[in-house]
């Protein structure tokens, strides 16, 4: 199975506070998110695509974190990941790949992956066969702007056809900090 999640922000107390995450401390947040992840990702062959901002920690701390998280991990890098990605002590082999942008197939659908929302994404006019998954905007005013854009786009026409817009914010809080499959994200959003 393949799962997706964005903006976990392990080790980031400021994100815990600004997002109003329901954890008493940074340590509690990190430990509970690891537990939730591992309850969901049980098989070694399960894949998790992280849509950026996994952690703000340095290399060695992220190495330890990744060894505790089940599954095969892929990273679409986000702005906060640069701290560990540029640290010489970070073990890049703990990810299957690290890319700033990716496109892949998931159950006969194309999935466009970026940490940042791409409002005009490749394959957008292919209807429900293409989805744009992103993070970065958490549940902020920027996210509300993206939602307005999606709504207005879906109400617009290109010729006689309505314009499809399948953008999903995979923000960890929206899923209760649990990586979800594409179908689960579609159902949730």
Search tags:
189 residues, alpha/beta, four-stranded parallel sheet, four-stranded mixed sheet, 30% helix
Rg (C-alpha, Å) = 17 Å
Proportion of residues in β-strands: 15-25%
Estimate the global geometry from the Cα principal axes. Answer: globular
Largest sheet, strands/sense/barrel: 4 strands, parallel
Could you state the order of secondary-structure elements as H and E? EHHEHEHEEEEHEEEH
Report the average pLDDT across residues: 97
Structural class: alpha/beta
Helix count equals: 6
Record the strand order, biggest sheet.
1-2-3-4
Provide a descriptive summary of the structure in words.
This protein is α/β, with parallel strands linked by helices and 189 residues long. Helix content is 30%, strand content 21%. The chain has 6 helices and 10 strands. The strands form 3 sheets. It has a 4-stranded parallel sheet, with no helix packed on it. The longest helix is centred in the first third of the chain and has 15 residues. The protein is globular and about 55 Å long. The model has no long low-confidence stretch (mean pLDDT 97).
Short account of what is shown:
The two termini are 20 Å apart. Helices cover 30% and strands 21% of the residues.
SSE map:
Elements: E1 2-5, H1 13-18, H2 26-40, E2 47-50, H3 59-68, E3 72-76, H4 82-85, E4 98-99, E5 101-106, E6 109-114, E7 130-134, H5 141-154, E8 157-158, E9 161-162, E10 167-169, H6 182-188
Parallel strand pairs: 1-2, 2-3, 3-4, 6-7, 7-10
Antiparallel strand pairs: 5-6, 8-9
